[in-house]
């Protein structure tokens, strides 16, 4: 089965990148539970109840996770990070699929990362509706729920924790990091600041951590999306370590502050009744068995066929990604195989 072998090589290639995102997924589930405002006893009984009531297709519930810059940041409601999380309601078999923001959505005549923005512009709450529809069009699977995480809340959470300790392997300078609130400043140079990160272990506050993970305009290896993904991994893991430390978990004041930030920074169309079902599933998830996928342009060196390609910019007037061979069935087959191979 050569095609299955290529899929496995693709999964192993990106496992290092996507596994840390499971920690972030766990944090979001915790926030959703807190949002339910159910009495503790009632929640405990619900968790023990084996019945799970969630929308599903072929026993899988599909949840779209979106990360946005938030108010005060350039492109505040353009989705900077997109993941589809699919969970089997019977076995808790979990798949996380990373979705590039530059995928061209035919029905929108725009990039995927704009769907949430355009939906919110039409009506409040429309962002999740349109983003879920766009992703469903790409993966050919229903998307049942959506969750939006405001990265500015993540920044505040880091400050509540007293910063995070990150080992920076390579230093870099970004001379065009956008200054929030100065998108239209004149001269144009007033819109940007210079940010520099030196190699070595250091403590980041929330603002520095966000600049470290979102920096784009730097020369050399650190200017690639691949390097940016590595930086995100380091900060997420550092955040996880600080959050789960005894010093944090035994500090009721910090936990109360973190809960408040979480409630302000997460939007979802999940009903209150769905939270306990997600928590029950989360308790059953085996991180070692977690499967991950990514829609990408493949690798000739590793004999991984492309799922997407970049057409000439003259075609759409901008840099976008389309399915290999302009045939979405290539992507749909990959999604079908990765989701249902264990069912």
From TrEMBL:
Residues 79-243 form the Cell envelope-related transcriptional attenuator domain. InterPro entries: LytR/CpsA/Psr_CW_biosynth, LytR_CpsA_psr. Keywords: Membrane, Transmembrane, Transmembrane helix. The chain crosses the membrane at residues 21-41. The keyword Membrane applies. It comes from the Bacteria. Belongs to the LytR/CpsA/Psr (LCP) family. PANTHER family: POLYISOPRENYL-TEICHOIC ACID--PEPTIDOGLYCAN TEICHOIC ACID TRANSFERASE TAGU. This is Cell envelope-related transcriptional attenuator domain-containing protein.
């Amino acid at each position: 089965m050569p095609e299955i072998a290529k899929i496995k090589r693709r999964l192993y290639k990106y496992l290092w990148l996507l596994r840390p995102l499971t920690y972030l997924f766990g944090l979001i589930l915790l926030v959703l539970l807190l949002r339910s405002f159910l009495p503790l006893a009632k929640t405990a009984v619900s968790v023990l109840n084996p019945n799970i009531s969630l929308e599903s297709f072929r026993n899988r519930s599909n949840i779209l996770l979106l990360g946005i810059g938030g108010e005060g940041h350039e492109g505040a409601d353009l989705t900077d990070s997109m993941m589809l999380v699919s969970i089997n309601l019977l076995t808790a078999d979990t798949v996380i699929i990373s979705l590039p923001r530059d995928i061209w959505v035919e029905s929108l005549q725009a990039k995927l990362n704009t769907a949430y923005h355009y939906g919110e512009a039409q009506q409040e709450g429309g962002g999740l509706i349109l983003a879920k529809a766009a992703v469903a069009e790409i993966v050919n699977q229903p998307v049942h729920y959506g969750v939006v995480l405001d990265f500015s809340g993540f920044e505040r959470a880091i400050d509540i924790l007293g910063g995070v300790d990150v080992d920076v392997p390579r230093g870099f300078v970004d001379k065009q990091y956008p200054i929030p609130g100065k998108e239209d400043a004149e001269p144009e140079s007033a819109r940007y600041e210079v940010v520099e990160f030196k190699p070595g272990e250091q403590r980041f506050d929330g603002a520095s951590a966000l600049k470290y993970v979102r920096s784009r305009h730097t020369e050399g290896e650190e200017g690639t999306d691949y390097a940016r993904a590595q930086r995100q991994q380091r900060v997420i893991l550092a955040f996880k370590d600080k959050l789960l430390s005894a010093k944090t978990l035994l500090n009721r004041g910090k936990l109360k502050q973190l809960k408040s930030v979480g409630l302000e920074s997460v939007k979802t169309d999940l009903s209150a009744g769905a939270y306990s079902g997600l928590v029950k599933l989360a308790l059953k998830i085996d991180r070692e068995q977690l499967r991950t996928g990514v829609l990408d342009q493949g690798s000739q060196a590793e004999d991984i066929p492309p799922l997407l390609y970049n057409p000439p910019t003259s075609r759409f007037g901008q840099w976008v990604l389309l399915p290999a061979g302009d045939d979405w069935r290539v992507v749909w087959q990959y999604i079908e195989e990765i989701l249902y191979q264990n069912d």
